[in-house]
Design brief:
The protein has about 220 residues and is an alpha+beta fold. The strands form 2 sheets. It has a 4-stranded antiparallel beta sheet with strand order 1-2-3-4, covered by helices on one side. A 3-stranded antiparallel beta sheet has the order 5-6-7. The relative contact order is 0.15. The model has no long low-confidence stretch (mean pLDDT about 85).
Length: about 220
């Protein structure tokens, strides 16, 4: 009796093991696609977040530049080239104070310019190892000269505007040739600011956003 009972228990244990194996396989079949979908969803979310970050950076940067230009005049920009020429640096005078006694205006020279990012030079390589080639930043410099301090307005600036390569041609069809990722274009009293930002997403693909705004300058 004891032997028979022992054999019966072994058969029951073997049957249970098979059930466990089958259940494990079924569970893997069911959960596998769910895990893959969840992973894809997470990557899509991360990519979407990066694109959103570029959008916010670009809009905020253009808004800041426009605010800096609000008190400037056409004349303070000197010999700024007319369309279709463009510049990657903009110098202008800005009102910093108006005397209450006699209305005397105090002006300050301001510069906004395209600068290669920390560790980057114009050599066609990714020197700072952030996945971008010759990426740049936007610097704001008050009273430019020896020892002047620069404030960084934006990073992840593309070396050339989206669609443009340095070949002496207007590749992106905007009327400009070999324009940088930040460039200023003036037509009469209207100043147009072009900006392209670029980052590498989590899949190693480039996320790119291009912005443009115009401001009517005072005489």
């Amino acid at each position: 009796m004891i032997l028979a009972r022992h054999r019966h228990d072994r058969r029951a244990a073997g049957h249970s093991l098979i059930e466990v194996v089958i259940a494990t396989i079924l569970l893997a079949v069911v959960i596998g696609p769910v895990v893959m979908i969840a992973g894809s969803g997470q990557r899509a979310f991360q990519t979407s977040t990066m694109h959103g970050d570029l959008e916010v950076r670009g809009r905020r940067t253009l808004d800041r530049i426009v605010r800096e230009l609000m008190s400037s005049t056409v004349g303070s920009m000197g010999t700024f080239p007319e369309w279709p020429s463009h510049e990657e640096r903009l110098d202008f005078d800005q009102v910093v104070d108006v005397a209450e006694s006699d209305g005397t205006i105090t002006w300050e020279r301001v510069r906004i310019e395209f600068q290669y990012g920390p560790g980057e030079t114009n050599d066609g390589t990714d020197e700072n190892e952030n996945g971008l080639i010759d990426d740049a930043s936007i610097a704001l410099i008050r009273d430019p000269g020896v020892g002047a301090q620069a404030t960084t307005l934006c990073t992840f600036v593309r070396e050339y505007l989206e669609g443009e390569i340095p070949n002496g041609l207007d590749d992106n069809g905007n009327g400009l040739v070999d324009e940088r990722g930040l460039c200023f274009q003036r037509t009469g009293d209207t100043l147009t600011i072009h900006l392209t930002l670029e980052r590498v997403d989590h899949d190693g693909d480039l996320a790119t956003r291009t912005f443009e705004t115009s401001i009517l300058l005072r005489n």
